[in-house]
Design brief:
15 helices, globular, 34% helix, six-stranded parallel β-sheet, binds iron/sulfur cluster, alpha/beta, binds cobalamin
């Protein structure tokens, strides 16, 4: 028998949030798998910037850009007690709670609700969603998965109010749960070693999709000490580049999409195995796309051929993960890139046609034991190379190799309280890197025309 399954992308509660090509990709992958198993899937997106009912509210239309990024609706809300000392407004990003409640009421026939979660420190938006579901659909089982549920599993089990918290990839556990709860037969399970066996994400459920996220791989061959990639995927698996081209062409034809954002951890690694054949195929098929890479790309692979191919294939937004110019810290954190490689990469990208402000270089800021002069030197180095420095404030992640150091360095109780993982807090600040030093760095970038990330 087919079940009615309701997917929910929850609100973000934070000091700031920006739709930087953000889509609940994992949840929509689960949605298509459930359809493939014969179920009916519906979707409430609390972050929908075009929700029709919001037009009648006094919230105005958030400013959006033609390439698919822009602002969310937002309402200022009370700060959790733990963040009271931080002198900034705290907001609920997304639709109004009464509109969400109304949408839920249209789904009285739901048999089960699946909620995703993104940043660990965005859990208050998840909890608010769960509280309202309990009021409107009191007897419907609630399942929580995603990043927060995986990285802070015990916290989520103890505090979220969900009936089931699932860590890691959701495909098999969700099908198993439907079998256990309702006796639903499992017809189709994708091969975990073949990413092309997954049906395309259920992107048709998105209201007014302007851009879509694509992933060509899972995991990463590197293991940087601050990153949780290996916790989610301990193998580096890739799709067939021709199948990725098929997917891009499919969404162009079905939903008329031109803008795509890559969510890979390692899109450019071994370019001849993915990015080169993929882009050559896209050119061969005459597909006209804009590609955006808000998640840091690898610099090491950039040469003249790849730069030209990226430029001519429509890579409009490119950010690279460089993190620091400090040689010792590069080594300690995993050695994914060296200074010389940044110099070379920028030279090639510029020859291909990219301008200084189009080459964003992420610099990690506020790592345990880091002082502000290290970040200043890194900024100066990126400028010398001819690219645009972009600060990425360190968010400590449980289970990563750097976590014990972060716990020891932080003045906040990051072990007990995920709200303190928020990158806006600079939670491993110290006497050599005060919050004021960080503000100064940000101002100096701004005064030289390097706008900070709107996140
Ligand atoms: C794309 C991405 C971004 C994008 C878009 C973010 C977005 N919300 O989509 C951008 C570039 C904006 C971004 C920004 C940042 N990011 Co980011 N990002 C990612 C990335 C690479 C991919 C996420 C993704 O969609 N994966 C693909 C899907 C298929 O996987 P999935 O969502 O996990 O879904 C699976 C399971 O989780 C599960 N599942 C999901 N939902 C559900 C629901 C149910 C019910 C069930 C059962 C299962 C389930 O099943 C799915 C299928 O198997 C992850 C790393 C990663 N490899 O996942 C980091 C990651 C989420 N980001 C991270 C960080 C640190 C950041 C930044 C703070 C970096 C910085 N310092 O500036 C910023 C902050 C953002 C902000 N404040 O707005 C951390 C998390 C930190 C945290 N504390 O939670 C991660 C994990 C990377 C890391 N460094 O380890 N990010
Ligand atoms: S930071 Fe980037 S290169 Fe390092 S492990 Fe994570 S995804 Fe891989």
């Amino acid at each position: 028998m087919s079940r009615n399954i309701l997917l929910i992308n929850p609100w973000i509660h934070d000091f700031s949030a920006y739709d930087f090509w953000l889509k609940p990709l994992g949840l929509l992958y689960l949605g298509s798998l459930l359809r493939q198993n014969g179920h009916t899937v519906r979707f409430i997106d609390c972050l929908d910037p075009y929700h029709p009912a919001m037009r009648k509210s006094n919230c105005g239309q958030p400013q959006r850009h033609s390439c698919g990024n822009g602002k969310f609706f937002r309402q200022i809300i009370a700060k959790p007690d733990e963040l009271k000392m931080f002198p900034r407004n705290y907001c609920r990003y997304g639709i109004l709670p009464e509109i969400f409640t109304n949408d839920l009421k249209q789904n009285q026939d739901a048999d089960i609700v699946l909620i995703t979660s993104m940043m660990t420190y965005w859990y208050p938006g998840v909890f608010e969603v769960i509280k309202i579901i309990r009021e409107v659909l009191p007897s419907v089982p609630i399942v929580l998965g995603g990043k927060y549920a995986t990285l802070c599993f015990d916290h989520a089990q103890k505090n979220s109010g969900a009936d089931y918290v699932i860590a890691g990839a959701g495909e098999k556990p969700v099908l198993q749960l439907l079998l256990d709860l309702f006796g639903e037969e499992i017809f189709f399970v994708p091969d975990p070693d073949n990413l092309d066996s997954c049906p395309y994400p259920a992107f048709d459920l998105i209201n007014n999709a302007e851009q879509l996220s694509i992933t060509t791989s899972l995991g990463c061959p590197y293991r940087c000490s601050y990153c949780s990639s290996y916790i989610f995927n301990n193998k580096f698996l890739r799709r067939n580049p021709l199948k990725v081209a098929d997917e891009i062409e499919h969404w162009q034809n079905i939903l008329n999409i031109k803008n795509f954002s890559f969510y890979d951890d390692a899109l450019l690694v071994d370019p001849e195995k993915m990015i080169i054949p993929l882009l050559r195929e896209i050119q061969k098929r005459n597909l006209s796309c804009n590609f955006h890479c808000p998640n840091g790309l690898h610099l090491r692979e950039i040469n003249a051929e790849l730069s030209e191919l990226m430029f001519s294939s429509g890579f409009k937004t490119i950010y690279f993960g460089f993190e620091t110019s400090d040689f010792n810290r590069q080594l300690q954190t995993g050695g994914k890139v060296k200074n010389k490689e940044l110099q070379n990469a920028v030279r090639h990208l510029k020859s291909a046609g990219y301008k200084t402000n189009e080459i964003g270089i992420y610099l990690l800021c506020g790592l345990p034991g880091q002082n502000s002069s290290e970040v200043k030197k890194s900024i100066a180095f990126v400028r010398e190379c001819g690219a645009r420095p972009v600060l990425a404030e360190y968010s400590p992640i449980p289970g990563t190799d750097l976590w014990p150091e972060a716990v020891a360095a932080s003045p906040f109780d990051i072990t007990e309280e995920p709200l303190y993982h928020n990158n806006s807090l600079l939670c491993c600040r110290n006497d050599d890197f005060k919050y004021a030093d960080y503000t100064e760095l940000k101002m100096s970038l701004k005064s030289q025309g390097d706008e900070p990330l709107p996140l």
